[in-house]
Amino acid sequence: MVLNIVLHIALLLIVPPLMLGVINRTKSIFAGRVGPPILQPYFDVIRLLRKGAVYSRTTTWVFYFGPMVSLAAALCAGMLIPMVSATSPLGFTGDIILFAYLLGLGRFFTMAAALDTGSAFEGMGASREAAFSAFVEPALFMTLAIICIKANSVAFGGVFGNLPWSSWGFGHPIYIAVAVVLFIIILTENSRIPVDDPNTHLELTMIHEVMVLDHSGPDFAYIMYGAAVKLFVMGSLLLHILIPIPAAGGFVGAAMLLGGEIVLAVLIGVVESVMARLRLPMVPQFIMGASVLALLGLAVLFARGVS
User: Which pLDDT band, with edges at 50, 70 and 90, does 120 fall under?
Assistant: First the structure.
């Protein structure tokens, strides 16, 4: 039990920036470039932590605490979801609901900090983020509802412990739909292509990046690290629907999670290498497609008698 908690915390704190490095290296390979080192995100965070922060006189405490609250929300969400075993350090009955709302809390404070600058440019990004999150949240809650109804539980431990692994796949195509929807949600929530481009600085297409333009130094480090933690945590949710968690956990569970997260990072890098960013009016249609697929899975679930 203690070993599982230690491994859980260690993976949650150490591994997330590695996923960003793997994504960037994958994109570099597809582009025929050497690219930055895989550990470059760690160097970037450390470099930013050593710098000072610059604050506008128009900002308030909302701008100061926005990055810290977003990072804290992502870390708390990571403590709720099982990673190396079937239990989590802070798991309880109903933790799935808190998990979803913690993600929403982090997003809210990011948007509030952007609005607090008084910049119309950052307000534009916050407006886009709010609109797209309104489309993606129904898809997230419907996918969580599917796995909760099947397991007759609203706790991650109960859900992951009651998935029908023996007949997974064509016997339960609903989980395939859930996995696809969650992958689309991961791309959307983490501002990845085809929804957003984390490397762009074009004024008419920026969503997440435009909201954090005024942050600097340690504040920007918290944002970068928090974004990596959020990607890692949501990736854990997807992986544990696709791969059964060892009941005992330990190093076997940690190795499975680490390997799965790296594969997921490579997959995201491949998607960003072979696809272009969608035009802004097409993004809501893309996200709504995920909601429709989740709704279809929910309908099939009830049509089959929740068996």
Answer: confident
What value does the mean pLDDT of the chain take? 89
Span 260-271, mean pLDDT?
Answer: 96
Asked whether 253 and 84 are in contact (CB, 8 A), the reply is yes
Is 170 a residue whose pLDDT tops 50? no
How many CA atoms are closer than 13 Å to the CA of 171, on its beta-carbon side? 7
> Average pLDDT of 71-85?
95
* The two structure tokens encoding residue 284: 């809501």
Length of the chain measured in residues: 307
Label residue 275 left, alpha or beta by phi (over 0 means left) and psi (-120 to 50 means alpha).
beta
pLDDT in tens, 277-301: 888 888 889 999 999 999 998 888 8
Whose tokens are 């160097």? That residue is: 43
Residue ranges of domains in the chain: 2-303
How many Cβ atoms sit within 10 Å of the Cβ of residue 288?
Answer: 14
Query: Quick one: average pLDDT of 199-228?
Result: 83
Task: Please give the backbone phi and psi of residue 172, each rounded to the nearest 5 degrees, phi first.
Answer: -135, 75
CB-CB neighbours of 30 under 10 Å: 14
CA distances to 71, 83, 200, 285, 304 from 232, rounded to whole Å, are 13, 10, 22, 26, 33
Tokens 């481009």 belong to residue: 197
CB 89 within 8 A of CB 8: yes
Of all residues in the chain, what percent are helix, strand and coil, respectively (each to 5)? 70, 0, 30
How many angstroms from the chain centroid is the CA of residue 86?
A: 20
